[in-house]
Amino acid sequence: MLQPPGWEGEWHYAPKRFLFCVLAGEFGAEVSSGERRQFPTGELVLVEDKPGQGHRSWVVGNVDLLTAVIQLTDDAQVK
After folding, report:
1. What strand order describes the sheet that includes 27-31?
2. Secondary structure of 13-47 in the HEC alphabet?
């Protein structure tokens, strides 16, 4: 996926468990507990929303965000 600088996503749930790979740029994310983090190029993030509001995300900085999403089965082990 390619998102331009300034892009912001609304609150939503991940439809499935997946690995979110940051190939270029940086993104920020917030979860319903209020925790906010930033993920630079090279980060690999396990996304598996639990009950609550889900998450929202945005592009950090003025560089396009390029990501790859790898969908996982419910029983996949990630270490």
Report:
1. 36-39, 27-31, 55-59
2. CCCCCEEEEEEECCEEEEECCCCEEEECCCCEEEE
Q: What is the reported pTM?
A: 0.85
Question: What does the alpha-carbon distance between residue 79 and residue 73 come to, in Å, rounded to a whole number?
Answer: 15
**CB 56 within 8 Å of CB 12:** yes
Give CA–CA dist 56/75, Å, rounded.
Answer: 25
**Tokens 């639990």 appear where?**
50
- What average pLDDT values come out for the chain (79 residues) when binned by 10 residues? 96 88 97 94 89 88 96 85
CB 9 within 8 A of CB 28: no
Question: Alpha-carbon dihedral of residues 39, 41, 44, 50, nearest 10 degrees?
Answer: 30
